[in-house]
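Appendix B, example 12.
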Amino acid sequence: MPLTISSPAAEARDLLTQAEAAARAAAVSGVSYSIRLGLTAGSVSFTGRADVRFTLSQSAEGPIFLCFRGQTIQAMRLNGSDVTTPSWNGYRLTLDQGLLKRGAENRLEVEYENAFDTGGDGVFRFVDPEDGAEYIYTNFEPYEAHRMAPLFDQPDIKARLTLEVLAPSEWVVLANGAERAAGPVEADGRTLRTFTETPPLSTYLFAMTAGAFVGERRELRLPGRAEAIPVGLWSRRSLATHLEHDRFHEMTEQAFLYFGALFGREYPFDKLDHVFAPEFATGAMENVGLIIYHEQYLFRSRPTASDITSLTEVVFHEIAHMWFGNLVTMRWWDDLWLNESFATYVSYLCLTEGAPYPDAWRDFNVQLKGWALREDDAPTTHPIAGSVLDTDQTFLNFDGITYGKGGAVLKQLGARLGREGFAAGLRLYFQRHAFANATLADFLAALEEGSGVPLADWSAQWLRTSGPNRFAAEVAEGPGGSIASLSVRQEVVSGDPVLRQHLMRIALIYPDRSGVRIEGHELLLDGERAHVPSATGRPLPLAIIPNHDDLAVGKIALDAATIRFATERLEEIPDGLLRQVTWTAMWELVRDGSLNASDYAALLVARLPEERDASIVQQIVESTLGSLLLRYLPDGERERWGSRIVEVARARLARGGDEGTRIVWSRILVLASVTPRDIEESWQVAAGETPLEGVEIDQDHRWTLLIRGASHGLPQRAARLRAEAERDPSDRGERALLSAAAAEPSIPAKRAAWEKILTPSGHGSVSRTLAATAGFAWPWQRELLAPYQPLLADALQTLGASDVTFARDWFRAASFGLWGDPVGMLEVADKLIDRLGDPTSGVPAVDAARLRRFTLTERDALVRILRQRRGELEGAN
């Protein structure tokens, strides 16, 4: 019987508790879905028809419900009976107990309609401004699949999915499985595609893309596998010329071969498509057979070696999930950290052992471990493993500790177990839990059995405690300038008062005919101090650097002699990883207030041009230069050191070098340009008006210069922005124009920008609104921004009550540290923290906790900035 019921304006939150999920998993089994989606060109909504079959336990208690967040339900049948008044609160579709069959299979049929999402979750629609082409894709982790259809939306109710999509015949439609059949073109120009039934999958891994995608598939043949695996690469039409089919085919083959051998099981699915999606909300998502990537990984200009390594790591990370996460899936979201940490760790194993990237652990040090140290040494630090009481809390602690510290801890665990023991444990794990769910306890049990190493103490020490340890070398001088004793001491920095066990090598740096040489000594640091007897009697070194191989997980303290060596000769260290470890340690000294920011700027000016590896130069600059110039250095010092670095970049470009070196130093030229004069001169170089041999400034960095020029009010900014928009009419160009408009140094421009940036749809989509937000605040606009500081606490409190995920992204885009007034912004942060601790704030408790966490992170950054700036002022006096 047809009906149309609109989604109620429900007061309930769209979440699922862990207790509810456990009860439902005990009640429901044998689930399968047949879903037909109807997509129409130009429509802002889609239709659906879901056929859900499941067995209900004889002993099931309480209400049985499916999750569904949609616009309307148009028809519903349960076990053949029409349901004319569905019990639906807009999020949950509760089934009539009188129509359910216990101890037998049940069938639910629902016809419905839903709107496309504009925030990046659920089912998202994008229209390309360049050619008007449409693109639709899904993004369901952790709890968004029920925006596509009524589902038992939780990871431990795995189900088989048969998907049909009725879409314009000229569109490319992709899903988890291969296309099985395509019907004739119907009268409305649409074609029905049917995809193969999937094996049992968690609902958050269901996926679909549709639209004017362009790409191709190639067959990948692996030793011992009878059938070839179709591997596709796709993007929207306007970016298709940038697709690198050879590179992606090679990366996929490398990952399949390496992980298949390591895990003892070949790729578990029948195909794999890689799809670049416009305005994708995360870096990438590991949907079964259909990985979706942010377009930042689609190179539109010549990439550096470091860019390629980063891309390859992302691809390997997502492919690793096909086994760890997809074949075997966590039972509940409290083990999401393990899912991500494991994929992070083994992706770097694959880079260094299964692909030609032997130096990838250097990237890990700065990108993942550096991120982990920042998060772990903050007031919001937390254990790697923790509780997740409901789906809203899934991403509460989803951060550098989840990815970086977790991956680093697993790296040390792998060394402790040995490769054979680690691999044996993994093979047991996949053998026991394939196409099912597992827990951290299951994972550790398999590793213990495979390696013979008990892990209870390790788990308690590393996974259940928070905060980093810090390592410092202590040396006593003996007769004749020798080492009488050398030890490494560790201390608690923050978090829980725990001294952990660390495998470590300590590097002694000695002079050599060709520069310097490294002498490494191994130790096990267990407790407050560990002696290094192998160093006794050796000559006193030029420098002592703990954690030579970057195996230990913690912060490094450097003594005065080592800091002096780094400022004078850092580039002479022959080991690239140790150079990177030293650079990271020096930057941590700045963040901790132990090294003056201007001294670090001097280090960049003196030593960076002498660094022979462009990848290390790039990693250093990308991880430190923006914070150094835009946050830590005060007015005057920012301009002075920015101009010095610009001079160094020009000089280094004049010296020549390979393509990677030229690209990296061209980026430095742009990123160091913070004064009107430097921005103007760098733009003239970028535009070809002033010749500079070797310069390679890509489109993204051209926009960076123009946005910064707008923030300073450079005279020719309007004409240049118009011309650049014609040169780059893409959505990237549109977002850059929004940033530039918000950056304008005028009262009317700030007022107009402010009115739109505090709502997710202010500029039509979250991505566009965040682009405008990123252009709003600049440290040299302090007076213009001052009127908005008193408004921030109220605005963010309101935002947290309505869309806490957007509030998180807003914090990232408009960092408090960029407002040029750390004292005033500290007051804003304190006010907001106090309000969020008040149960009468109007912000739901779970959202208040998340927003308070974001604010505490910003507050910690402001305290570090103030510590540096006050130190700079004292130093200047």
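The radius of gyration is 28 Å. Residues 56 and 201 are 19 Å apart (CA to CA).
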